[in-house]
Amino acid sequence: MRIDILTVLPELLKSPFEHSIMKRAQEKGLLEVQVHPLRKWAVNEYGQVDDYQYGGGAGMVMMCEPLVKAIEELSKERKYDEIIYLTPDGEKLDQKMSNTLSLKENLLMICGHYKGIDERIREHFVTKEISIGDYVLSGGELAAAVLVDSIGRLLPGVLNDETSALFDSFQDNLLAPPVYTRPEDFRGWKVPSILMSGDHKKIEEWRHEQSLQRTQDRRPDILDQL
Fold first, then answer.
1. Taking the C-alpha atoms of 173, 212, 164 and 146 in order, what is their torsion angle to the nearest 10 degrees?
2. How does strand 128-131 pair with strand 189-190?
3. Which of 22, 186, 205, 217 is most deeply buried (CB count within 10 A of its CB)?
4. In CATH, which of 3.40.1280.10, 1.10.10.10, 3.90.1150.10, 3.40.50.300 is domain 2-152?
5. Domain ranges of the chain
6. How far apart, in whole angstroms, are the C-alpha atoms of residue 33 and residue 192?
7. Superfamily assignment of 169-223 in CATH?
8. Tell me: the pLDDT tens digits for 29-55?
9. What is the rounded distance in angstroms from the CA atom of residue 104 to the CA atom of residue 36?
10. Which is it for the CA torsion 44, 35, 111, 4, positive or negative?
C-alpha cells in the first residue's frame, strides 16, 4: 500500500512513521508513506498557501491553487482509490472504515490547517472526509497519523500472530477482554484461574463473556450494532 500525505507542517508527521509497527511495515515493503510539504506548490516565492476568507471572519483558509497543483501532480504518478480530507465534520473513523481502507492500494490524505481548505477542493477532488472524533485539533496531521496507523497495522504480514489485528477491540463489535501476564500473583492480585487451566475452549468462552460484559459496561452503544 502507498499513502501520500499533503501538509503544511511535514515535521509533525516525521516521528509517527519512524518507529514501532509503522516502521516495520515500511521496512518489510508492505507500506509506503510519503509526506509532501504543500509549500512546494506555493503561489509565490514566500511559500504562501493560505489567504483570508471571502466574507470576512477570523482565520486563514488553505488556497485552491497549491492543493490543486499538488493533487494533479501526484495523480499523474498513480491513481488514488481515495482522496481523503481529515476534518472534524467528516465521517467518524471506526474499525470498519479502517478495515475497508486497508484493502486499497493508493490513498492520498489532505491535512487541513488554519480554518480549513477552500470548499472547491472538497467539491471537486476529495472523495472521502474523515474525522477521528468530535473535537478540534490544530491541524489534520495528528489525525492523519492516527488514520495511517489504524490502516497500516491491518495489512497482511505487518503484525505477527501474537498481536493479530483480528483480536483487536471493535473487530467483532466488542471491546477486547482483560489480559494478564507474569507473575501469576502480584501483591495478592491473582490472574483468573481459568487462564491457567490450559483448557483453550473454556478460555475462549471466558474471553468472549468478558468482552460482552466490558462492552455492556463501557460502550453499550456498540451492542446495538450487533
1. 50
2. unpaired
3. 22
4. 3.40.1280.10
5. 2-152, 169-223
6. 42
7. tRNA(m1g37)methyltransferase, domain 2 (1.10.1270.20)
8. 999 999 999 999 999 999 999 999 999
9. 20
10. positive
